[in-house]
Amino acid sequence: MSNPGFETQAIHAGQSPDPTTGAVVPPIYQVSTYKQDGVGGTRGGHDYSRSINPTRTALEECLATLEGGARAMAFASGMAACDTLLRSVLAPGDHVIIPNDAYGGSYRLFKRVLERWGVRHTPVALGDLAAVTSALEPGVTKLVWIETPTNPLLAIADISAVAALAHAAGALVAVDNTFASPYLQQPLALGADVVVHSTTKYLGGHSDVVGGALVAKTEELGEILAFHHNAMGAIAGPFDSWLVLRGIRTLALRVERHCDNAEKIVDFLSAHPRVATVLYPGLSTHHNHDVASRQMKRFGGMISFLIDGNTDDAISVCNRASLFTLGESLGGVESLIELPAAMTHASVTGSQLEVPANLIRLSVGIETVEDLLDDLVVALG
Ligand SMILES: Cc1ncc(COP(=O)(O)O)c(C=O)c1O
To answer: Which residue in 216, 226, 243, 269 has the fewest CB atoms around it within 10 Å?
Structure first.
């Protein structure tokens, strides 16, 4: 097929029927080692499962295809993927630019782990290109870390514009594409060098697996990352790889429904008297709506909003919801509600990345939207 579509690739890339049995789904190769036909006589390079495993390879080939990269690596978690990338391309003395409202766990990695190894970071509002320019230290800034949309404020960065500035200063560009997924946004085509995923979220899609991934644009960067993937060892296991691959086959369908439901909920929240502000890149009032419209196919299933009230009011809303399950994480088929300041982003309290105490985040699932709206009517009181 000359130019297969996204949905076709999601179902077939890396997933040819098993050559031995014809099984249409890649089997779970739950194995640590492989028989060699004489010393060094591996079958297709299969020597040890930290280095290579057919189920993980199937997932990695699929991810590389969907993101348009040269090579992908699957990890035990999104944070393991971030950590491996950062320790592969950075060294003591280097400087990194990060978003000023990144996922709390990514910030914690920069602040509490990498700083101790001599890697400095500057949080910047990446939507402000002048701020990016003045934070770049040419030759010293080795990486610009983009998250777009951001977790939890749904801020948007212009990937092409930031990549142009970063590359001119000699820095690599990584994009955490967890919120959008490759179905909605293709960072490598927009100029990024590497894509990061928590596959725990939309790619897995069913809240039953923790995983991560890196996708490198070039073979050269892919080689470096693959070396560290094996050397550092935070690989995805065969069953976890299989679960993520199973989720990916329905990614397009699920994300379309996530977006349909989110748009209706945004309309509802925008008109609700107890809601002060709705944060959603699809709103024409969003500060970077034009950029989001250019670089995203649709605007995703994540919504944040500020309740007109204090922390206790926000807690009451979370506690009154019932179909929206109170819980961390996102991107699964079921809807979740959470209070970032006390839950997912508690680790940024007191930092430049602190989030408002009355901010509520929704991961809108694919249930019947009327049921979700009924639940929010009760939750908002
Ligand atoms: C945007 C983003 N990046 C990375 C991660 C980390 O992924 P994991 O929890 O799979 O380690 C998360 C987790 O919530 C996230 O939301």
So the answer is: 226
CB 179 within 8 A of CB 206: no
For residue 180, the model assigns a pLDDT of 98
- Asked if 214 and 225 count as a contact pair (C-beta separation under 8 A), the reply is yes
Tell me the pTM: 0.97
Ligand 1 neighbourhood includes 57 CB (under 6 angstroms): no
Task: Specify the amino acid at residue 53.
Answer: N
From 198, 225, 248, give the residue that closes a domain. 248
pLDDT score at 143: 98
| 227 CB-contact burial (10 Å; exposed 0-12 / middle 13-18 / buried 19+) | exposed
* Ligand 1 atom closest to 179 (CA): 1
Assess whether 172 and 305 both reside in one domain: no
Active site residue 158: no
Q: What is the pLDDT of residues 263-300, one digit of tens each?
A: 999 999 999 999 999 999 999 999 999 999 999 999 99
Residue whose Cα lies nearest atom 6 of ligand 1: it is: 78
Q: What angle do CA 290, 292, 293 make, to 5 degrees?
A: 65
267 is catalytic: no
| 36-63 pLDDT per residue, tens | 999 999 999 999 999 999 999 999 999 9
Token output for 136: 């770049």
Cβ of 236 closer than 6 Å to ligand 1, yes or no, is no
Q: Which domain holds residue 163?
A: 6-248
Q: Extract the tokens encoding 366.
A: 């694919």
CATH number at 96 reads: 3.40.640.10
Q: Is 147 in the pocket of ligand 1 (CB under 6 A)?
A: yes
